[in-house]
Design a protein that fits this description.
Distance between the termini: 144 Å
Strand content: 15-25%
Number of strands: 21
Shape: elongated
Number of helices: 19
Oligomer: single chain
Radius of gyration: 35 Å
């Protein structure tokens, strides 16, 4: 009897446990299928569905005539799914023959059991085909794109380059990265057990939108010639580096901007900081005597002097007990302001600056745009270095008068002096000409813009005449181009090292415009740290200016028109 009752109790308890188990199981299934359905589906999708980002073709960079300076070219990405690589050591040994990575590094990446690893962001089609033909497990080749620079070093600091992540790192590539980048697309697909996409299971696709084209104001032909002669000038003077800027003074557009040394953006990894720096906008230096037209503008504009005002030059000036030497230790005796600019007398411009005063000089410094970055449209644009106005003493003011005791960028200085050949009107410098769609339609054009009017037309004409005489019978004679009248100004500035004026490190310059009386360009040649016997601006930079200007007159088909005097007498229309 007991045995039977015991069996019944066991059966009952078994039935109860079974019922409870089934109830729990049913509840769990309900939770899984209803309450947790969305999260589990997302989990499954993360395993079996992948979103592949499709890079957008980058926009072109072209010159003013449409010459391609930077362009997007088809490339391929080499990617791996280490989770499916069964023999990482063997595959690493094979891939090391094709990719610029060591076998040990590749093995480490292929052994990490991850779903995705980018092995190389950009390889050419020929190499991609070879890797694809290896049929390595877990290794895929995905179409991509990359930036190429067909002209190599041409305008390299202006154009810049693009990094491995597709972002601009310098120059226009950095400054206008948003315009050039476009918008990436994507491809959402299911994959098989090996991680390979299954096209028939494509879930979504969005095509990438190509970037727009950036058109610059520079002329590639002129840029190449400027670069050629700058290189010649830097090496001839055994200098550290140099820059050439050519502007249209009537529009502010940059026709050429060359630096030497430079680099090849196709292989920027090996470039040095010296090669990659855009000294035209990033490196403030004492301008020296090419600043004197600004001082002359202040003296004439305020009515304190005329071109015929007389100065007694002795080769030096005592200011507050401090002797400041002229570059010519014996002076020229009594000379006019015009003659002072011709021969580049430092003493004359000390006298002018001291008469103008701190307020007057700093007013003109602001009017000529020397107190702020040039805003030309390039990264790293410096505002220069000035002594605060309330701290300027008489010695400071005297040295500022002839271009010492402060520092400005070459772009700031050429923009300031460009007002002289443009009737006293200073235009905003710009290097961007237009933005075009991928199909070539104009989206935006940059129109010339007046920045200021620092000189009256009368004052500008007076200083222009002084600069013509400087180029024909003064310090700028080596810049003369036979058959053409030009105006210009030499400059030889002492560099500031550790807060002190150096006695043996110079910046040698020539600023000039032509042809007069209707200048088509203004050009600055600035060479930094010449070493040896050649260090004055007329020795170092004027010959470079002359070679480039000779090319410009021929390139623009401007026929010779000047007589033997080349403008040393007042120009009279025939």
């Amino acid at each position: 009897m007991k045995t039977r009752r015991s069996v019944q109790w066991r059966a009952l308890w078994t039935l109860i446990f079974t019922a409870v188990f089934m109830l729990v199981l049913i509840i769990r299934l309900v939770i899984i299928q209803i309450a947790d359905a969305s999260s589990l589906q997302a989990y499954a999708r993360n395993i079996h569905v992948h979103k592949i980002i499709l890079p957008a073709p980058r926009g072109k960079i072209i010159d003013r005539n449409g010459t391609i300076l930077a362009m997007d070219v088809p490339t391929y990405q080499i990617v791996a799914a280490p989770k499916y690589v069964t023999h990482p050591g063997q595959e690493a040994a094979i891939l090391a023959k094709y990719l610029p990575f060591s076998q040990s590094l590749l093995k480490k990446v292929l052994s990490n059991n991850s779903w995705y690893a980018l092995l190389d962001r950009s390889v050419p089609q020929s190499l991609a085909t070879k890797i694809q033909q290896l049929n390595l497990t877990g290794i895929s080749v995905i179409p991509s794109s990359g930036q190429e620079y067909p002209n190599g070093t041409l305008a390299s600091q202006v154009i810049g380059m693009v990094g491995a992540n597709g972002q601009g790192l310098a120059g226009i590539e950095y400054e206008d990265n948003k315009i050039l980048s476009g918008k990436p697309g994507y491809w959402i697909v299911r994959t098989d057990a090996s991680g390979n996409p299954l096209p028939q299971w494509q879930e979504a696709y969005k095509a990438p939108k190509p970037g727009d084209t950036v058109q610059l104001t520079i002329d590639a032909n002129i840029e190449a010639v400027a670069q050629k002669w700058l290189k010649w000038g830097v090496k001839r003077a055994h200098a550290l580096n140099g820059t050439v800027i050519i502007l249209n003074p009537h529009t502010g557009s940059v026709i050429a901007l060359a630096n030497w040394p430079n680099f090849n953006p196709n292989n920027y990894y090996s470039a040095t900081p010296l090669e990659m720096t855009d000294y035209a906008v990033q490196d403030p230096v004492p301008p020296g005597s090419i600043f004197k037209p600004v001082t002359a503008s202040a003296g004439l504009g305020l009515g304190l002097f005329t071109p015929n005002s007389m100065f007694d030059t002795r080769g030096y000036k005592i200011v507050d007990g401090v002797r400041i030497n002229d570059w010519n230790p014996v002076g020229w005796g009594w000379i006019t302001l015009t003659r002072g600019l011709e021969v580049s007398s430092d003493q004359v411009f000390m006298d002018v600056a001291l008469k103008v005063g701190v307020d007057g000089m700093y007013h003109y410094i602001k009017e000529f745009g020397l107190d702020h970055p040039s805003n030309v449209g390039l990264p790293g644009d410096s505002s220069g270095i000035w002594i605060p106005k309330n701290q300027v003493n008489a010695v400071d003011l005297a040295t500022i008068g002839f271009g010492q005791g402060m520092a400005v960028t070459p772009m700031q200085m050429i923009t300031a002096d460009s007002a002289i050949p443009n009737h006293g009107v200073m235009m905003q410098p710009h290097i961007l000409k237009a933005i075009l769609s991928p199909t070539g339609q104009v989206i935006k054009t940059v129109k010339p813009q007046v920045e200021s009017r620092p000189d009256t037309p009368k004052v500008a004409k007076e200083i222009e005449h002084m600069m013509v005489l400087e180029a024909t019978q003064g310090t700028g004679v080596p810049a003369q181009v036979p058959g053409y009248v030009i105006g210009g100004k030499t400059g030889t500035a002492q560099k500031i090292v550790d807060g002190k004026t150096s006695s043996n490190l110079f910046v040698s310059s020539y600023m000039g415009f032509g042809p007069v009386p209707h200048p088509r360009f203004i050009m600055l040649v600035m060479i930094n740290r010449p070493i040896g016997k050649l260090f004055y601006g007329d020795q170092v930079s004027a010959p470079v200016w002359q070679h480039i200007a000779s090319y410009l007159f021929k390139y623009w088909k401007i026929k010779p028109y000047a007589g033997p005097d080349n403008g040393s007498k007042p120009f009279v229309k025939p």
